[in-house]
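User: Modeling request: complex.
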Amino acid sequence: MEESRYIFLENLNQLIEECISGNRLAQNRLYNLFAPKMFLVCLRYAASRDEAEEALQEGFIRIYTHLSQYRHTGSFEGWVRRIMVNVSLQRYRDKTRLYPVVNLEEQHSTHAANNETLSRLGVKDLINLVHKLPPAYRLVFNLYVFEGMKHREIAELLGISEGTSKSNLSDARTILQKEIMKLNQVFDQKLNFL
Amino acid sequence: MSGDLHHIDDLFRSGLEGKEEKPDDKVWTSVEQELDKNSFIAIRKKYARLRQVSAILLILLLGVTIFALRTSFTFNLENNSEQKALPAQQKSTDANKADKKSSGITVEIKSTKDKADGLNGNKNTEAASGSIDNKKSESNASGVIENKNVDPVAPELNPNKNTNPATTELSSNKSSNPATTELPSNKNSNPAATELTRNRNAESTASDLTRNNNVGSTTSGIARNKSVRSTTSGITRKADAGNELNGNKNAISTRNNKSKAGANSLSADNAATPGSDNLITAPAELATVDLSITGLSIFSVDQSKISAENELSKMTSSSNSQASIPVKNKKHQPFYLTRFSITPTASINFISNSISENSSHYPTTGNTADDIKRTEEEKLSYTYSLLFDVKVAPRITIQSGLGYMFKTTYIEPKEISAVKVNDKIKYQFDCSAGRYYLNPKYGTWPRVGDNAYTIASANELEYLTVPIAVKYYFGNNKLNFYALAGGDANIFLKQNLTTGLYGASYYGKKTSTEPIGLNKVYMNAMIGGGIYYSFNRRIALNLAPAFRFALNPINKDMPFNAYPKSFSLAGGVRVSF
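Assistant: Request completed. Predicted assembly structure:
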């Protein structure tokens, strides 16, 4: 699998050309090459696995449709990732309004997570934690943490104020901390049981 | 607390960044299906171009067929008329041969005139046997006219102009040869010539071809004409075309000498008369013209001096124009239109839209005129009509009828927005043919202002057309043309939009009989023309190009107005009653 990926990466430009010409086999190869990574991106933005799969599908359709617009400048993976993020954002715009839904006072009373608990979490656990965020928080958290965007950029992108963006990020962190603490308690109970 | 929160950022970044998660296999299956749908639309676009090319080729083929049919028909018409005349000539030739045999005498007449001589020019054997060569006949005919005026031999038939020594020669022969005497005297005084003229005029149709033949056939005509034969005493003549006697018309004397010798059969060749005082220096060549001679006295006569033929040629040439009258009349029959005709028609319409901003429409939602211009492309449109024509004047008809027209517009992928309609939020899809509202079939429900991307779409419109036009005809009955001016009313029947939204939240065909933003009727002005090729009085083939310009926009209450204009090419079959 790794070897074949290496070959594909070497011939990425050729693979792109094949995809533009409508070669279904090449399109399948491109999908296999980027789908696992992009699926995780979609999972972070989606509320569920099903939604993430829908976003992934829509994103790949858009990639194949607009592949001829790729200028071969910069990372192709970055271009693909950007499309996935845009699709996810569009889906969230279609789906919900961006406003706070969480009582902040309640959230501030939560305890901090300890390092031991964090080290036990795998990818699925982390994704599940992200899924527990309200859509608006999840969006801001993803854009800030994973896309590296500033609050000003996030505010412009989502059409919200910079303060709202900061507030949403803070609330997202607080919720995640709370969820991590809950997980910590569960782990502790399991250990005690054993 | 703050440090813990940032620690969470790092936790998630390090825990998820660069990691992978395999999606379900059904995702790729769905992607494939979506790609197939898109390629289906792309294929439809591709085949639409193929249809255009096929239609153009079909029209060209139709044109070539009409041309070929017309050419073939004209050729057959001419051949038929020629063939009708030909047997008569062959009969006369046969009769001449029979006469020849019965008399057992053949006189070969050498031409003393040059080839320009109307009676001598191009007299070949084929011509004598009745072959047809209009060009030859034309030149011969003109030659005959010249003979009438300048041929020094011609006066033989007209003693008053008898200045040629050859005539004297011949005259001397006349004294000894009754046939010789008979010939000029008959030509001058015998009513046979008149009779011949009458006969020729009477047989105008048959003589039409004879007239067009060269001298040989003309001679056959003479032989066929009993009165002429009686006048010329049934002379069987063999006139060699292109013979040159070097101006020595004394050759006749040679022949005459033979005649005097009482030979019942004479060689056709002057060279066979050695010792003659007046040898023909040029051998007999080329074509011959037979003149039947029933009399015993046989003589050689310079063909140019056979004024009977000259006269005949004169008559022939003079009757050229007269004889052609019946044929011309046949071709130029008065133009005739039946009072009523029906024409089933199929037409291809090349449509384009003139899009302009609608200044009276203030709402800013939906696409602008520029968006429509950029994203839409009109494809071929087809119309099937049943048209009828009612004659109102000898060359004018009023045309009307019923037609079914449909047209397809391809729309590039574009961004559309969700709007609130009747307390429901739907995606608004604008095109030149009005507006559609799309409901996502599954997935998340849109909110007002949300955007979605459509795949390539196709919009189909169906109309009932009612044309009315005035047609003015010119041309003849076989091939006539017309100019046309009028208009048509297009009554909306149905519209279909085939589109989809990215993400498979919508894909399908939306059909509507209650259009939104579309006029139920729009009017066209129409100018054009056409050709009718008539196979007979009842059936005619019709080819009709026309231009149409919309007088009112196809849509309404939209930010833009769309005025269709089209060039159509229609083909049909007219059935007259």
